[in-house]
Amino acid sequence: MTPHTEELAISEVAERTGLTVHTLRYYERAGLMLAPIQRASSRHRTYTAADLTWITFLTKLRSTGLPISQVRAYADLARLGDETRADRLELLQRHRITVVAQLAEMQASLAAIDYKISLYARKDTPA
Amino acid sequence: MTPHTEELAISEVAERTGLTVHTLRYYERAGLMLAPIQRASSRHRTYTAADLTWITFLTKLRSTGLPISQVRAYADLARLGDETRADRLELLQRHRITVVAQLAEMQASLAAIDYKISLYARKDTPA
DNA sequence: CTAGAACTTCGAGCGCGCTCGAAGTCAAGC
DNA sequence: GCTTGACTTCGAGCGCGCTCGAAGTTCTAG
């Protein structure tokens, strides 16, 4: 329980993000971190608030289906600095399109499921 | 090109459902079909309109993330007849809950992505 | 000094959902 | 009769995203 140091142990990050410590280490190995995660004298990882912010955002990318390879591409660009802003924006905008499409498809599928449920709800007609 | 016989070749079903012929055979092997797919004298599969309807619905279950094991469970129940109506309804209702939750999560993630995009769109502030 | 918990690295393994290739069969057209 | 092409079965393989276990280190408390 690090008191108020702003630095978080990996277990604390896991708790706050809903990821496992295994996944956090995996993400780091996979090159998804924006900046190298700093280490304490014990060689333990110490996450900053900025790290946590990024991890939170990356889980949103992941939960909308952006492949890890694309998240890495985004992180790679971000590490290169301001010059890549346009590329990062484009990546996000392209992803946005696919997310919107996914939402539409899910909603359509949900409607079909709801319709089926409504058929079951009428005791008479078999579904 | 089967003229108007109501019976469809696997390639035609693939075209209409967006699945591949490989996937269609895989689904059958996996026990996802409601009724056995009939065969022509050539041993080729011949799908009926009812088969197509079911396959269309099952892709909606799949596209909303219902695992194949659950689709099979549903199909198994359906094959058992009317007595299992309540179970099938419950399965769909349970799935519905998770779909709604997924939609909410995706929408929240989309909002975060949109916010990030809006930051990029302001030329000044770096994102 | 010792025990225990929390961390470390590394590489292997796994579950899911397809995806594919090999080898064979069948019907239709030339 | 022969070729072409769409189909068949079967089992192996694969890509993704973790997930896990082994073996070792370090800090903290008792």
TrEMBL record, chains A, B:
Stretches assigned to the HTH merR-type domain: 7-77
Task: Please give the SMART domains that the UniProt record associates with this protein.
Answer: HTH_MERR
What PROSITE patterns does this protein map onto?
A: HTH_MERR_1, HTH_MERR_2
Q: Which domain of life is it from?
A: Bacteria
Looking up InterPro entries in the UniProt record yields:
DNA-bd_dom_put_sf, MerR-type_HTH_dom, MerR_fam
Q: What SUPFAM superfamilies does UniProt report for this protein, alphabetically? A: Putative DNA-binding domain
Keyword list (alphabetical) reads: DNA-binding
Q: What Pfam family is a match for this entry?
A: MerR_1
GO terms assigned for molecular function: DNA binding; DNA-binding transcription factor activity
**Know the name of this protein?**
MerR family transcriptional regulator
